[in-house]
Amino acid sequence: MTMFIIVFLALCLISQPTQAITRHYEYITMQNVTRLCHTKSIVTVNGKFPGPPIVTREGDRLLIKVTNHVPNNITLHWHGVRQLRNGWADGPAYITQCPIQSGQTYVYNYTIIGQRGTLWWHKIVSYPFVKPYKEVPIIFGEWFNTDPEDIISQALQSGEGPNVSHAYTINGLPGLLYNCSTKVNTFKLKVKPGTTYLLRMINAALNDELVEADALYVKPFDTKTVLITPGQTTSVLLKTKSKYPNATFLMFARPYVTGQGTFDNSTVAGILEYESPTPHSTKSTMKNPLFKLVLPPLNNTSFATNFSKRLRIGLSTNPCDKNQTCQGPNGTKFAASIDNFPNFPVNPLNWFNYTGNSPNNTMANNGTKVLVLPFNTSSSTNLHGFNFFVVGQGFGNFDSNKDPAKFNLIDPVERNTIGVPSFGWVAIRFLADNPSVWFMHCHLEVHTSWGLKMAWLVLDGKLPNQKLLPPPSDLPQC
User: What GO CC annotations are associated with the protein (predicted)?
Assistant: First the structure.
């Protein structure tokens, strides 16, 4: 069984550029962790949960030696890093590499080029804004009392949706709103009055969309609530009150949900606490009133849409296996596909009203083909190996005759992961200038398991610097 390990990291930035250097890191072990009165062994990086940050500058070369000390196969994916001509370091198992087997080692070797900010494991340059007093990683995740691998295996066998998580977490801590969880297991952000903090947010939850720009600066705007889809990152400048407020504040995160399936509808809480003006005094802060904010409703599509606009997928079924009882719709197994077919034709094989009532036949086909793109062609469609421009989005079915006239071709936001509106569409555009095989998939883990994934094969260009590099000598064998 292949287990993808997504390690959650934030980058630090420095105010002055320096000469690029080579940085070395080593990793992977098992560690016992206790949450919600349940102790279990989980995969960690150097024994830390969440994993440690990699601090690097633009132009640095990274050599990450990964030794697998766990019983499962593993790979590491460097989410959002543009692996230029170097798909061998991207990480998706059985696409650009075989997994690292137990007891084996592989060195991920790549250079940070043309990126800055926060990714899931990443880099450093000057700020395009006033330097913040401090940087704080905020990593949204999920906690399962049971083994997530067992949950996915059971769901794929039964055909129904997977069991939901038992809690959401901030930096690995579920907070004080869950049973058997206290302030000790609550993330606490201590701040000083009149200062600015840079919050590096990462949504590492597997199957839910939490309250949003992928290592790319956007035009700033003020907001009290943030929408961030699975796999996305964003940086937020938190400006504290000018004077000590004699109060403590709760920070909340919960899912935005539009589907009809089961989901974890709980809320994770953290604490924002101002440092006491009296040195070495904690009594004053303990007596402060605790203020709670109000989040938008779970299904507030209007808020989600309006938030996304400020930044300048469908499911199917498969028949049940022979001599097996399945618990999906009408005795089938849940599945997913792109363009009704997992080998991604240019146009769907079966046309229907994609955002209306489901057709009578929801069966998906199976395939293992890729879509081939010549080098340096432009394509409009989480995509590995590229950033893309979000040129348009809307509700209902995409109208190729009318909707392109409304595309933003002046200042579209640049992302590596995008949330598609419920019962709607998104148009993205990227330049296929990076030769290799690149994975594109839904960032809801369950949808990827069902088949909502495909791959682009970008061909070599004519010049030497437009060709895929040869594979490294230590590339894992299957």
Answer: apoplast
User: 288 is written with which tokens?
Assistant: 């402060």
DSSP one-letter string for 122-187: ------SSPPPSEEEEEEEEEE-SS-HHHHHHHHHHH-SPPPPPSEEEETTB--TTSTT--GGGS-
Q: Which domain-ending residue is among 277, 309, 341? A: 309
Domain that holds residue 166: 134-309
pTM of the model: 0.63
In this structure, is residue 126 part of a structural domain?
Answer: no
CB 62 within 8 A of CB 21: no
Structure letter (DSSP) for residue 206: S
Nearest to 162 by CA among 364, 451, 358, 445: 445
CATH number for position 218:
2.60.40.420
Contact 65, 26 (CB under 8 A): yes
d(CA 443, CA 311): 20
Q: Looking up tokens 């974890």, which residue turns up?
A: 264
In-domain check, residue 276: yes
Confidence of residue 186 (pLDDT cuts 50, 70, 90): very high
Neighbours of 302 (CB within 10 A): 10
